[in-house]
Write a structure and sequence with these properties.
Blueprint (H helix, E strand, L loop, with lengths): L1 E2 H7 L7 H7 L5 E8 L6 E8 L7 H24 L24 E6 L7 H8 L1 E2 L12 H6 L1 E2 L4 E3 L11 E3 L2 E3 L2 E6 L3 E6 L5 H4 L19 E5 L1
Parallel strand pairs: 3-4
Antiparallel strand pairs: 1-2, 2-3, 4-10, 5-6, 7-10, 8-9, 11-12
Helix pairs in contact: 3-4
């Protein structure tokens, strides 16, 4: 488990930053990272699932939380890659894959990012970097993030980008937009199937979710993938 406020507390470049204490440290959002290994082949997979702060007036906090997520994920993945390959494989598998570093392990990064398409969060995840003076930092100070910029080394793409993002993943009387995403590493995973959108006829009879048929204001997003 990654607790963003605890990660911020431990970062040396954050310790004397007033914005960290007033804006980031007061949020208790987390991410969970699962490390998986296929028993038959020894192939590995990393799945990270995150919940990011919701308030549009705290776009800087969203971006900082996701930057910390990717920093911690890189450390976890590199440690996972150092573990010796699995032995005693199933018939038909001679040797387990070797991973020179964490970026070589197929990775899925998903969750409720509470961020829309033109946000710094989506820029960062999709492009791999965000400049130090990005508008979503909102002129606040966050150590190296705002003095050097942020970057990650994974070639990520949204699973739904192949067919176009859904019309929305969050549907309430006052807000409808896409804020939930499934990102994957394009060098090691391929998308084979996606769950489609809600039937339009049903939506015309609803003012928003939750409802009798949808227990959350968020829709389920689902992707089937294969390891290349």
């Amino acid at each position: 488990m990654i607790e963003f406020n605890q990660i911020a507390l431990r970062r040396p470049d954050f310790k004397k930053t007033e914005d960290v204490f007033n804006r980031v440290m007061t949020r208790d959002h987390i991410a969970v990272v699962t490390l998986l290994e296929h028993r038959a082949s020894g192939a590995r997979l990393i799945v990270a699932n995150a919940h990011i702060f919701w308030d549009h007036d705290f776009r800087d906090v969203k971006l900082v939380q996701v930057a910390m997520l990717m920093d911690e994920l890189a450390k976890i993945a590199n440690d996972f890659a150092k573990l010796p390959p699995r032995l005693n494989l199933a018939e038909g598998f001679d040797t387990a894959p070797l991973y020179s570093n964490g970026t070589k392990i197929p990775t899925i990064v998903c969750g409720d990012f509470n961020s829309v398409a033109d946000s710094g969060v989506l820029d960062f995840l999709s492009r791999g970097s965000v400049e130090k003076d990005h508008a979503d930092f909102m002129n606040h100070t966050y150590g190296n993030y705002t003095s050097e910029g942020i970057a990650h080394r994974l070639a990520l793409r949204s699973a739904y980008s192949h067919i176009g993002e859904l019309p929305f993943t969050n549907f309430t009387p006052g807000f409808q937009d896409v804020i939930d995403y499934i990102f994957y590493t394009t060098n090691s995973l391929g998308v084979t199937g996606l769950l489609g959108e809600v039937d339009q006829e049903y939506l015309t009879s609803s003012v928003g979710f939750p409802s009798a048929h949808f227990p959350s204001d968020h829709l389920c997003v689902l992707a089937e993938m294969k390891i290349k």
